[in-house]
Design goal:
653 residues, mainly alpha, five-stranded mixed sheet, two-stranded antiparallel ribbon, 25 helices, 7 strands, extended
Length: 653
């Protein structure tokens, strides 16, 4: 019996502890709104509202709105102007957080009309709310006016446009302007500033469909943020820590989105989950929009992995604020979901919804976006606009002059009719004169032909001297090699010497040709390979090399890049393709040009490229040089990994 009594008391005790703990947690969670309500003065409530890190964690924005309305009503009854202004500022912010931008704008505009009665901090908050409202309403011209007001009040020195360009979908222009404006302002030891900078640049790259490059920038951002968060020498407030956590959640969310874009769904899911959980705590509209975006990417990743129930769970989430573009993405994912589960009727419904939304957007936004673009460009560079106006005035004046000249020419036509007979007589004189001119032309033709011969001789001499100078550079590199002990330095010098020889050979072939405008590539490639073999004396002599470039001729602007490309490829084959022996080694080089179209192919049957070729492409000078030379030829390098060896190829014009 005593055992049962003890068990009963123990159970009651633990229930009491659990209830007390739950109540304590609830009190702690409600502390922000409770602190707001327990504070007596409007200015103190204002500070609690705007200084709280997570005011919507327990109480929704609607709870806050109801509470603020009560205090606002009391202030209006007592005609406390200062309190009325403070409560209206908070009300405008809450409407902004709820996505009711029209209501928020109406209140904020009324407040800004009374800006002389507001202190600097209150003016800044009102302008920030208007700035965000106009951005979400796509009223970019009004947003620019607000930013001018900020500058006039000394709140900011510069008017930035990169976020407006981003909202218009001009991500590359947004990134370029962001880099130009922000990068010079960040100190080298400002880890947090560098983390924000690389996060922003990475996100613009992601939005511009450059996921691999974006990943690199976002990982840099994560590294800098890690340095900042682990730096114990810097004191960090609770607000600093919270903002760091939000930034980390934003970076990880964008990294996850890149993984989804690249089809790496397993890597994306855990990052998206942690990002969503952290960003939910933020009262910021942009962070809540990221929660929507990350949730849709969670659904997309699960859908691509055929986890239909998980995908549907995320697609069924209801959001308070969702943009039109996010709605389109959600509808597309729902349509794809129903397609995969073979519910084609529901899939059709969501496809049709998207078509209606897109048609509506096309009608409503096309003219507006164009108008906003003109406004941004005009405001971004007033001096340039003035130059354009002056140029237009000059063109108009020129047109008027041309019209006047045309009228005068018409008058001359009539006058010329009078002198027709005199002109006929002049023809006879001109005929006699032409006989004399023909003799002069023949003499000048002879002079020109002699000048051309002299020009060809001079050009050959120039190419010969350039070749000699390049050979001198090659000799200097050889001397430097002999005085260098570092193996890495010797290899680098040998590679440089090989590239210099490739260019020198071009000039040698030119001055040996009768036609100085083109180079016969078959002979040039053979000479180039002999030159490369002389550099790698211990390798490459047993390799079977087939060159198929007979009859192909290229000008110097194309021949030099081709020579350097071949130099790199053949050198790499000799150095790396046949590590054990080259007795069965084969290299095939194919070059053709028909009219305006050309084709180049290089293959070897060596060990092929390593698995981390893509990563090495950013650090290897050879690969970077090849890519830049191919870009110079206005083409793109293609690499095919084969069972044995590797194949490089590209088209050119």
């Amino acid at each position: 019996m005593g055992r049962y009594v003890r068990f009963l008391f123990t159970s009651v005790y633990f229930v009491f502890l659990f209830t007390s703990s739950a109540q304590t947690i609830a009190v702690e969670e409600e502390s922000v709104l409770k602190e707001f309500q327990d504070t007596d003065q409007p200015t103190q409530r204002f500070d609690v509202f705007f200084n709280s890190l997570d005011r919507y964690n327990v109480n929704s924005a609607y709870d806050w709105l109801d509470t603020i309305k009560i205090y606002l009503s009391n202030a209006q009854k007592t005609q406390d102007t200062t309190a009325i202004n403070l409560y209206q500022i908070m009300q405008a912010q809450v409407y902004n957080d709820l996505g009711e931008y029209d209501k928020s704008t109406a209140i904020a505009k009324e407040l800004y009309g009374l800006k002389d009665s507001l202190d600097t901090d209150s003016q800044k908050i009102v302008l920030d709310v208007l700035d965000d409202n106009y951005a979400n309403l796509q009223l970019f011209d009004k947003q620019i006016e607000i930013r001018k007001q900020k500058r006039e009040l000394g709140i900011t020195e510069n008017i930035s446009f990169y976020d407006i360009y981003s909202n218009l979908g001009l991500y590359r222009k947004a990134r370029n302007q962001y880099i130009m404006e922000v990068k010079p302002t960040i100190a080298d030891n400002d880890s947090y500033g560098l983390a924000k900078y690389h996060s922003k640049v990475g996100n613009y790259l992601r939005l511009d469909d450059s996921a691999p490059t974006a990943l690199s920038e976002l990982k840099k951002a994560n590294s800098y943020l890690g340095v900042y968060m682990n730096d114990i020498s810097t004191q960090k407030s609770e607000s600093d820590i919270f903002q760091s956590e939000l930034l980390q959640a934003e970076i990880e969310g964008n990294i996850a989105k890149c993984h989804v874009m690249l089809g790496e769904y397993e890597e994306a899911l855990p990052l998206l989950e942690t990002s969503i959980e952290t960003l939910k705590k933020s009262p910021n509209n942009n962070d809540q929009s990221e929660v929507v975006e990350n949730t849709l990417y969670m659904a997309e990743a699960n859908l691509q992995m055929d986890r239909f129930s998980e995908a549907k769970k995320y697609l069924d989430v209801e959001f308070e604020n969702i943009t039109v573009l996010q709605t389109i993405k959600k509808n597309s994912l729902l349509a794809a979901f129903y397609d995969k589960v073979e519910n084609y009727k529901n899939a059709s419904i969501y496809y049709k919804r998207n078509e209606r939304i897109k048609d509506s957007l096309a009608k409503k936004q096309s003219a507006l976006i164009k108008q906003q673009l003109v406004t941004i460009v005009a405001n971004e560079d007033l001096e340039n606009s003035q130059r354009l106006i002056d140029e237009q005035k000059r063109i108009n004046a020129l047109n008027r002059s041309e019209m006047k000249a045309k009228d005068e020419r018409m008058n001359l036509v009539f006058v010329s009719l009078i002198f027709t007979l005199l002109g006929f007589a002049g023809l006879v004189y001109a005929y006699l004169k032409s006989i004399k001119n023909q003799r002069l032309i023949a003499e000048q033709k002879h002079i020109i032909e002699n000048s051309l011969v002299e020009k060809d001789s001079l050009l050959k001499e120039i190419h010969h001297r350039v070749k000699n100078n390049l050979q001198m550079v090659s000799s200097l590199l050889s001397l430097q090699t002999k005085n260098t002990r570092s193996k890495a330095a010797i290899e680098a010098l040998e590679e440089g010497k090989s590239r210099v020889k490739a260019m020198a050979l071009i000039h040698q072939k030119l001055y040996q040709n009768d036609d100085l405008s083109v180079i016969e590539m078959q002979g040039y490639i053979e000479s180039l390979i002999n030159s490369v073999q002389s550099v790698y004396k211990k390798g490459g002599h047993n390799i079977s090399i087939t060159i198929d470039a007979e009859g192909t001729e290229l000008d110097i602007d194309r021949a030099i890049p081709f020579g350097l490309i071949l130099n790199e490829l053949v050198s790499n084959s000799f150095k790396y393709a046949f590590p054990e022996n080259d007795e069965n080694g084969k290299i095939y080089i194919h070059l053709r040009k028909n009219g305006d179209q050309g084709y180049f192919e290089y293959t070897d049957n060596g060990i092929g490229l390593p698995e981390d070729t893509d990563e090495r492409a950013h650090s290897s000078m050879g690969i970077r040089l090849i890519n830049r030379l191919v870009n110079q030829l206005q083409s793109k390098l293609n690499i095919d990994r084969q069972v044995e060896g590797v194949r490089f190829w590209f088209n050119f014009s």
